[in-house]
Amino acid sequence: MLAAPAHADKRVALVVGNNDYKNVPKLQKAVNDARTMGDTLKQLGFNVMVAENLSRQQFSQALLAFDSAIEPGDTAFFFYAGHGFEIAGQNYLLPTDVPAAGEGQEELVRDASVLADRVIERLQNKQARTSILVFDACRNNPFERAGTRAVAGSGGLAPMTQLPEGVFSVFSAGPRQTALDRLSNNDLNPNSVFTRTFSKELLQPGENLVQVAQHTRKLVSELAETVNHKQFPVYFDQMVDDVFLNGKAAGQPDIKQLNKPAAPPQQVAALPPVQKPPPSESLNAPIAMFSRHNGGWTVVFSIADPTLGISWRMGSSGDFRETGFLDTLDPRTRKRLPNPSIELPADAPASTIEIRYIDISGEMQGPFPIKFDPTAALIHDQRKILDMTSTSWLQFREFNGLLIYYTHLMTNRCAIREARIGIDTTVPDKTLNMPPCDPKDPNSIPANATPYLKLSPSTQFVSVELTYRDGSVSEIKSFRR
């Protein structure tokens, strides 16, 4: 591996593929996947280091080389194909010389492997502007042996929901799902189902990272369903701006222009620059919280500055309307507090709300644009409710037998992709049936829906896990009688 000379705002990638494991089952396509991803990233202007069949020491050396190639402001891309293992919620990438650990030997695995969170920490320490991590490592437990107890953990990787700002991660399959290497014995593609799809999507012009991940998820899921397999890639997004690896954001230079020979070398690898805020925008620009109810939408504005009045309009034309005042005095202004909320009809279309306010000195501030996306706002609102009320997801009832009600989940189903429960087990293995989301009346439960399950009288507890619309997964919650 040779690290290219460092230039500010460039693109740097480390691609790792491990097939030849010595003490756990070998893999067939991880090295091919790494080579394919390396070729793909080179087409996108990355300085790529491809590393194959790494021992623990070689893995450390590869990460050090990766570190030395990254400078503040760079875009860093880390791809790993091979065995991954989760212990107590932490993800470990297994080098080829990982020992064959057994029951109670989790420490052996930890000491001999690479902690995925540490890779993120290293990129943060190098002040990479954008860090992209992709893991095609969701396979069976590599430590399982017939007739023996395996080390306590799970094959594949746990969701990485607590990511720092500027980090985007993609997993080839969801929790407890295995990633397909092939679709059938006649499938001669040299790459796994995930990598063959993801590498092509990365090259689609004009797609940002979220779109790449979403399209990959849809295509992989559809391919897996053709062989009655469930594989649903997930992603976790902590990006502030849209990131385009092949193409451009509106009004930004196209990568083809960036690749002209006359351009400075660092422009080949640079992301489109962050768009400057409009002149009217300040650090104290208002933010909005959207809540859906039976009558429509309530929008609550949060303004850092003391205000003497608030007005708003839909779109960028027309008259502004005052929000009015509450029967409360604002101790900062010693005047009546402007009403910080407005109401919108249930069928309000996607649009931009412009808001302006009068500050304490009497000057008008704004207008400030606030994007209103009904679908995204509904999902966000219901997800927030579910997170805040996790103790109410399930309720036991005695009525002609033992019942478990999931009315609360059904009421907020627009934020849920899948709900699974486990009866007297901490592993949710059954899917709850819920009607599709109805954006026109999202909180209602159809008359023909059954929001409960009949349980055996001997049932002691039920576990539940939610997969949300964005692909993230909740903690497993347990509910006892």
Global geometry: globular
Uncertain stretches of 5 or more adjacent residues: 1-8, 145-154, 249-282
Q: How can the largest sheet be summarized?
A: 6 strands, mixed
Please state roughly what percent of the residues sit in beta strands, choosing from under 5%, 5-15%, 15-25%, 25-35%, 35-45% or over 45%: 25-35%
Task: Count every helix, treating DSSP H or I runs of 4 or more residues as helices.
Answer: 10
* Classification by helices and strands: alpha+beta
Query: How far is the first residue's CA from the last residue's CA?
Result: 58 Å
| Gyration radius, rounded | 26 Å
Write out the strand line-up for the largest beta sheet, numbering strands in chain order. Answer: 2-1-3-7-9-11
Number of strands: 28
What percent of residues adopt helix (DSSP H or I)?
A: 10-25%
- Described by its quaternary structure, the protein is single chain
Mean pLDDT, nearest integer? Answer: 83
Question: What are the main properties of this structure?
Answer:
single chain, 481 residues, alpha+beta, six-stranded mixed beta sheet, four-stranded antiparallel beta sheet, globular, disordered N terminus
Structure description:
Helices cover 21% and strands 30% of the residues. It is built from ten helices and 28 strands. The protein has helices at residues 30-43, 56-69, 106-112, 116-125, 193-202, 209-225, 255-258, 265-269, 374-388, 407-411, and strands at residues 11-17, 47-52, 75-81, 84-87, 90-93, 114-115, 130-136, 154-155, 167-171, 207-208, 234-237, 244-246, 287-293, 296-302, 307-314, 321-322, 325-330, 335-338, 341-344, 351-359, 364-372, 395-398, 402-405, 416-423, 430-431, 452-455, 461-468, 477-480. The strands form eight sheets. It has a six-stranded mixed beta sheet with strand order 2-1-3-7-9-11, sandwiched between helices. A four-stranded antiparallel beta sheet has the order 6-5-4-8. β24 (416-423) and β25 (430-431) form a beta hairpin. Residues 1-8, 145-154 and 249-282 have low confidence and may be disordered.
